[in-house]
Amino acid sequence: MTDLTKLTLSSALKKLKSKEIKASELTDAHLAKIESNKDLNAFITETHDLARQQAKQADDRYAKGEAKALDGIPLGIKDLFCTKDIRTTAASKILENFIPPYESTVTQKLLDDGAVFTGKLNLDEFAMGSSNTTSYFGNVINPWKRNTGDNAQLVPGGSSGGSAAAVASGMVMAATGTDTGGSIRQPASFCGIVGIKPTYGRCSRFGIVAFSSSLDQAGAFARTTEDAALLLQSMSGFDPKDSTSVDKAVPDFSKNLTGSLKGLKVGIPKEYRVEGMPLEIENLWEKGKEWLEEEGAEVVDVSLPHTKYALPTYYIIAPAEASSNLARYDGVRYGLRAPGQDITETYEKTRAEGFGDEVMRRIMIGTYVLSAGYYDAYYIQAQKVRRLIRDDFMNAYKKCDVLLTPTAPSAAFAIGENEDDPIKMYLNDVFTVPASLAGLPGMSVPAGLDTKGLPLGLQIIGKPWDEETVLKVGNSIERAAGLSTMPVTMDGKRSAA
Amino acid sequence: MDRKTVKKVARLARLELNDSQEERLVEQLGNIMGFIETLSEVDTSSVEPLASVVDNELRLRDDKVNDGDQQEAVLKNAPETAEGYFVISKVVE
Known about the structure:
Chain A has helices spanning 9-17, 23-36, 48-64, 105-112, 161-168, 185-191, 225-235, 279-294, 310-325, 343-354, 357-370, 375-396, 422-426, 433-438, 467-481; strands spanning 43-46, 74-78, 116-121, 174-179, 194-197, 217-222, 265-269, 298-302, 402-406, 442-449, 455-462. By secondary structure, chain A is of the alpha/beta class. The mean pLDDT of chain B is 93. Chains A and B meet through helix 9, helix 10, helix 11, helix 12 and helix 13 of A and helix 1 and helix 2 of B.
């Protein structure tokens, strides 16, 4: 009997349609997998009863021939998406008991398409982090292990670490994530799966707990590019409830996935060859170029001269917007309240008790750069450099259709590493942040393993609204790499086997 | 970055900090601001700030009520309520 948790989403849909499997079996298999992988701490809240009920309804629709686009597919939802009547925490103590009375637009779309929700996935607190070690609900563990026998627990990346770990270990077929500076692409790379962040404005932000509103964008995790395309399809589209959602037709993302890359120009930005980058990542990047050339693409060198300013720009804009967005957590209307002598002390105690160290650090940076006397020097200057960074991309796209880069400067590291120094942690996002600042679609695809047996991803960055080309190039790399995305644990066995 | 600045910013951000947190933040924020400082070397004299990557004009909707009358839902997650209001400590003497 096939292990249903190893199926791809697209093959599961075919089997459901042909009545070879039932949605309730598919969901039960995944719920069992969730039970046996508790040690990864991927979930904050599990909704098994709801999932079984949704699966049953899906079976009824299949029986009647009224199946929807994702009918009966077990998904995980990053716990940053508000889900009606299901606790939504943003992995923060301050929202520990928050039960939204409304549904985010993205999750509503998934429900409308018949998806099964297994629960809410762990993340860095308020999506601030690159290792999923800032969650109030504990660290998420990467299902992959080094083959060196050190048995170290590795981080899944962040902030969408629970999403990446759950998909990689077969607990769910696909998961939602959000990406502000790399929070989908970097964990996808660390966990050996596919992660796509679409163009800013493609998915509605309504009902997603806000971190940095000009950067936050929802996206999809899956084990194949085709599955990621199917999930993203359901999540995308205009929403009048989000003023930055763009009223643009959504193409059929899985329609042009395969096929020749003839005539396509792939740009290699020279500034992404950073000092101290491991040789194996450099080699993988070379290999990626060769694969695309074999498929008929032409590789061209391009320059993105302001790349080195992307991280400093990001660490002004994102904390500034965060300090403003997180001002709402005041202990009055919802969330934790820690009473003080007067209202100001109540605010101060509530926020000190409710926020973790990284969130406080970013609120402090944001408040500082927005404060009187510094606003022009920091915030306005960052917005100006942001334009230069976006212009760099637009100039590069006069010479090419898509960019190929590594996703992250390293493979997954051990829990505790990089923790002494916030800046060291921030450097994880050096290759993902520029595309975020420019609002561009980006995807990480597993392309190889390092010498310790850990997955490494390559990043494809597209023109605005051109997720189709991003997915097509990603699919090409996926086929060339021929990598199983099931994690290899220390004993050399694939954990999902 | 000094202790006084950290205290002032924490006050603006409504965050209560203890001594050891303040000390740590003096060092960490100092390092982060040093890292950010490199931006000042970019000549941006002829560059307009970019506030949004989408060229969306803010849309206007019809001036009609399309939501509301949800007192129960609005108050549902409040730490303290009474008579359909949020309750806070006294702010006016």
